[in-house]
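U., I forgot to send this yesterday:
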Amino acid sequence: MLFCTLSHKIQMFAEMNEHDVVADRDVAVQTRRAIEAEIASYSSIILQLKYRLNTMAPISQLPPEIFSEIFTIIAIDDYTSTNPPYYSFTQGWLTTILHVCRSWRNIALCSPRAWSKFVLARHSNLQFIERALERSKKAPLWVRASLGWATDPGSRSLDEIMKEVFRIQELDVSGPSSILGDLLKKWTRPAPQLRRLVLSADSDSR
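Result:
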């Protein structure tokens, strides 16, 4: 009898203790969520204050049109100075600008001509090319490409750009003759803005 009573009390104590542990755990979870929400709120306030602080900088007094023109000039300079066989132009400097501040990001994203210059190589990033094409809106396209095989990312990137052939103003492509032949076969739509066209077959292509 004594053993049964003792066992019953131990079981009751264990159940009460377990209940307290669960309750404490729930309180801890709720407290953690409240703290995280408060941190998020303060982080948002800090970002807003930083944005206001940035707008007070002397450079921020320039009109957005000036920034857009500067970004476009840099894009042209990068386009003309890039060597496509060894380097794929990915507009990395523009990607950096997107993370400088909210104002610069908004201006860069609304500067179609800054996104309309492409230098393609065999390892070009197709996803980035697609995003840049979208951001270039209706701006004339300048394209230089040094290609290898038809399955290379660079060749597939050119295929994507050629869907916008009516916007192409300059096209300079070098690579195997088979690649150039495929390009001409796929070129079935007019290119009313085209001002310069250069197609160069590699010396070792067959």
